[in-house]
Amino acid sequence: MHSRRDEFGVRSGNRNRELSDLRSVGPATVQDLASIGVTTIEQLAARNPMDLYESVCRESGVRHDPCLHDVFAAAVAQARDPYLPVEQRDWWYWSRIRKAGGIVVGGSVPSALK
Length: 114
Prior knowledge:
- The chain has a single domain, classed as Orthogonal Bundle (DNA polymerase, domain 1), CATH 1.10.150.
- By secondary structure, the protein is an all-alpha fold.
- The chain has 5 helices and no strands.
- The protein is globular.
């Protein structure tokens, strides 16, 4: 069963989910997202993982480990698709892509996450 997508490409299955319901998203990530004004699944789905990463670095005044980008990539992918394959919900799935050159922190982002 698949749900419809809205104008942002977000599936309607996102209703009633919280950020903390997403796999790879713990209390620290929820707090990081809140620090830049992202508090709902819908807001997260409309954002770009690289922009989130850079915003958190700017807000905190600290250059965070690039794995935080991977956490954001996993979270955004889940926010956009509640039926995302299980392996793509883990931040380390996105780390492998980044380390293979598919994502350059501070550089390019795959079109699926733009």
